[in-house]
Description:
This protein is 45% helix and 8% strand. By secondary structure, the protein is an alpha+beta fold. Strand 2 (129-133) and strand 3 form a beta hairpin.
Amino acid sequence: MKHWGVVAGLVAAALIIVVLEYGVPWWQSRGDTEKADAPVQANDALAEPLSAESNAPTAYTPRPIPPTLPPLDQSDVAVIEELADWPVDPGWLEQGDLLRRLAALIDNAARGEVPRSQLAFLLPEQGFSVANANGQLRMSARSGARFDAYLDLLEAFPSEQAARLLTLYAPLLDAALRELGRPDADSIALVRRSVDNVLAVSIPQEGLALVRAERGYAFADESIEAATEFDKQLLRLGPDNLGRLQRYATDLLRALDALDSDNAP
Length: 265
């Protein structure tokens, strides 16, 4: 089974991430309709309106790369060693250029974009499904449940360790961002912005109504359909898993704050 919570852990750990469903084809053309589920209930803690806005990162002085860190081109070995105790699919780590991939994910997530190209090898195996309740199409509970194992894996990676890794490798992530044409990008600031994007998303109490579209389905609520692709991918986690991701993201922010306090002069 392919798990892609690892990237989410590091992005949401910036993200993130990642626990995103990649590829419009999984949403638009692999959808099937099932009998109605129980109504989707929103997490009471997720009461803020959906946000499609983002703020530009502030300029900063690039962090120097300390001699204790390997060069970016040789960093995979050290990163893999840091992840040795995590039950990660080895195939993920065989992709190479792990910090460059992570930098691209952080940058995309902070922009509200879905970084499909970086994670094409982690497509979920199950397709999106829809429930029909009295003629009203809604995202089914089964769709969100596809991500249970991914969140289990994410939560198995302590947020404190994720924060430590992000802080440790921040100079190399900054260098990778500069390679992407972001000379003034601060990787930790972008992580925080990515987490803010995750925390801004909420699922309506009545669930997610859908309408048929040219290539499958679209959100019936025009304000949701007009949101960023990143926000819409997060919504497809379902209320329970979105809540779990947001709690992890909150813990990550706290851990980053604690490290900032410890490192303050």
